[in-house]
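#struct-help
A.M.: can someone run this one for me? Single chain, 244 residues.
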Amino acid sequence: MAPDRWLLLYDATCQVAQEVAEKIQERNRYQRNGESSAKLNVIIRSSLQNLQEKIDQLKDLLLRAVSTHQITQLEGDRRQNLVDDLLTRQKQLQASYKNEGTEPDVIRSSLMTGGVKRGVTNPWLLEESEETRGLGCDDLRQQQRRIIEEQDAGLDALSSIISRQKQMGQEIGNELDEQNEIIDDLTNLVENTDDKLRTQTRHVKMVDKKSTSCESPFLCQTTTWRTRSQSNLGNPFASVRSHR
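D.P.: on it. Structure tokens below:
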């Protein structure tokens, strides 16, 4: 895979900015010792112009890469932040270059005490953290890639957790559906049993009522015979008809 031209140019630009910062320190040391710094001033001006040209190239390449979808929007935003940081550092180096005769050694003492004094040159070194101090552009790029990889690994782990939780939710939902079906079946069974129980209860009541009204079969037959006899006495022709 061919190396990314933009990243190579970014590394070269970082190197130029670092060299400018070092040249400004060296010029100030010359001036502090009473030595001539004219040659260094020429080199610094040329390096600053070179830095500006490289930053312009970075902006052009980034614009072309984003417009042609050679990189993602997220990567484009990240690179734009790097360009903005370079522009800020370039302006700081320009200010340090024009502010001749200031003491660059104040930078490290200010970092140790937590304060910044006026007239401090070389802000390129002033903003450097303990983690990145002494690292070159390649080391910084590797560090950034390592941080991105760690973030990607964290996002992958989070995605895996969310997927497991989603699967658990689906399984719980399926279990609830099955339980609801079982409850519906039980409800129907209870209703059918209740209907049968009411029907059988009615039958039992009817049988009980009949048995209560006629406790003895012989008594029931006697009562029926007496009723018929009395009826026949009232109608003498009824017995004749009954014999016939």
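A.M.: thanks! The chain has eight helices and no strands.
D.P.: also worth noting: Confidence is low (pLDDT under 50) at residues 100-127, 237-244.
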